[in-house]
Amino acid sequence: MKCEGKVGSLISGSRSFLHLQHCERNPRLHSGLTITEMDAPLSTPCNIQICEVTCDSFRIMWDMTPEDTARATHFFIDLSRKENRDPNRFKHRDVPTKLVAKAVPLPMAVRGHWFLSPRTEYCVAVQTAVRQADGDYQVSEWSQVVEFCTGDYAMEHLQQLLDKAKGSAGRLLKFSVFYRNQHPDYFDYVRECGGLMSPALKDTSGSHGSPINGKLHGVFFSCNTEFDTGLPPKDSPYGPLRFQIPAGHLLNPNISLYFADFYCMYTAYHYVVLVLAPVGTAGDDFCRTRLPMLDLASNPFLTYTAPQRPGEEPLYCHASDAILEVLYTEPVHLDQGSVEQISGHHQLMSLTTANAKKDPSCKVCNISVGR
Fold this sequence. Notes:
This protein is mainly β. Helices cover 12% and strands 32% of the residues.
């Protein structure tokens, strides 16, 4: 059953927690009911169903008797994060603890970008209620608690994040190599595996709702350069050995470029996560329906410009004011580049981003659908 109408105002003690899609009232409410039927106990809602789940909304429905459907005036909804659930929360059976919404045809849409977060487990329970003439409520028992998980950012949300990231990119600088720093043990292991750096599962760092977190495999590379030398920085938070590969091996006309994330870790500088996927590969297929695709020759972060004249080399540029994290979705062989010791005297371990959490208060890199 589809809801129609405008967003209605909701009451929850002294605060409003969620927006519900306000639907037309059921025309059968109170029609033809006797006083005895009105005073009869309400049955407990059962068969709770959650559907159409997004990163910041869902629809909920449940089974009621025809008599309860006819006389219910309000629904009470309790929604909480799974990890913070308190089974003794419902102390007053006749007092709403979370949310009061006027009874509407089910399923009912629940949304509220300041409350629901992407990829987060929630618990929900419901009551039905009849508002009486004196303002008190006759209520049912609480339903069973149902658990569900919100989804990833949709394409429209990533586009909002992309628009924010464009403002922090800065001017484009030339570069010639992608590089990857690791400790000696890592490269020893790679050599034991035939010299192939295999894609690893993306961790949970950055925006909680990014579709690639914990789902896309790849090999991370950097390409940022120092302003004064135009070369990769001398220090690294990831290790003292650096694998360098000519830019053209990873960035060329046979590559699809995608935007995946924009975040910071309580610092002034920001990270932009990009995905490079060879056209037609599994990584390309994964990203095509989940991430905004960027034009290789014209975007604020990472560009490839084809040679304009015979004998010229392609031009590769990166954003100057954002730290780029480039995820290449296919294996890379050590023979395609070289491994050397970096010349810096320290490794800046505090700057690593493994499983780093995004600053939820930053106005530069957050959008309106959670962190």
